[in-house]
C-alpha cells in the first residue's frame, strides 16, 4: 500500500528568541536556522522515516529545487511536485527557550496546485491507499472527493485550523486528527463532540497529556499517555505524530501500537530543534529511552 500526501512545502526560518513577542513589540533574536518545513513536507518525511511509501503531491517555485531534492534524500517520492511561477512557501518561526513557538506562514506555491496535476497524481493510487490532507494547500476538497471515489482512506490533519475547511471535508473523511483546542473550536462550529462526528476514526492530541483515540463506529475511546521529556522545540511534533500514525496504519499495525509508536516519535521530536530535517527515523524511535 502507499500514502498520497497533498501537502505544503516550506522553507522554515527559525529564530531563537528570549520569549515570544507581544503585539507591537520589536524583539531581537540571538539565532537563525533554516530548515525544510511545511506541515505537508513534515508529514511526508515522518511517514517515510517510519517505513512507509509516500508520494508527495504539491508545488514549489523556481527557488524550491533544494526542497524537492531534500525530500528525495529523505525517501519521499517527489514525482508529483510541480514547479510553478509563485515563490516557494515559507514560514517565519519564533521559538522561546521553553520550546513554545509562534509562526507566520506565507503559502506561495502551496496554493498554486492545479486540478490537472492533482488528478494525474491520484490516477496512480490504488483502492485502500491512504490520502492525507492538511489545511496548507488548495484543492483539499477536490482531493477528498477524488479519494473517496477511488476507494482511498481519506485522512485530514486539521491544521492550521479553520472550521469552515473542516466542515467542507467532513462528508469525505475516514480519519480526522486534531488537537484539543481545535476539537473545541470544531464543536463550537458544528455542535458535535469528536465522538459524534461523521468520521470513522478521530484522534485528539493533548500535548503533554498524550492523545485520545475515538472509534465512532464502535462508540469506544482510549487515552494514550505522552512520553516524559523536557521539550526544546515543539515545532513539527504534531506533524511527526500524524506521519507515524498513518505509517503504522499503512503497515497494518493495530491502532494502539501505531499511536504508541507515534507518541514516542513526537516525544523524541520535541527534544530536537528544527522541522523536517530532524524528524527521527524508526530506528531512533525504537531505541529511544524515556523517563
TrEMBL record:
Subcellular location, record wording: Cytoplasm
Main subcellular localisation: cytoplasm
Positions bound to substrate: 10-12, 38-42, 136, 239
One GO molecular-function entry: ATP binding
Cofactor: how bound: Requires a divalent cation, most likely magnesium in vivo, as an electrophilic catalyst to aid phosphoryl group transfer. It is the chelate of the metal and the nucleotide that is the actual substrate.
Keywords on record: ATP-binding, Carbohydrate metabolism, Cytoplasm, Kinase, Magnesium, Metal-binding, Nucleotide-binding, Potassium, Transferase
Active-site residue list: 239
Cofactor(s) recorded in Swiss-Prot or TrEMBL: Mg(2+)
Carbohydrate kinase PfkB domain ranges (all copies): 6-280
Any one of the GO CC terms: cytoplasm
UniProt keyword annotation of Metal-binding present: yes
Reaction equation(s) it catalyzes: D-ribose + ATP = D-ribose 5-phosphate + ADP + H(+)
Pfam families according to UniProt: PfkB
Cited InterPro entries: PfkB_dom, Ribo/fructo_kinase, Ribokinase, Ribokinase-like
Subunit-structure text: Homodimer.
HAMAP family attached to this UniProt entry: Ribokinase
Function: Catalyzes the phosphorylation of ribose at O-5 in a reaction requiring ATP and magnesium. The resulting D-ribose-5-phosphate can then be used either for sythesis of nucleotides, histidine, and tryptophan, or as a component of the pentose phosphate pathway.
Family from the record: Belongs to the carbohydrate kinase PfkB family. Ribokinase subfamily.
Protein name: Ribokinase
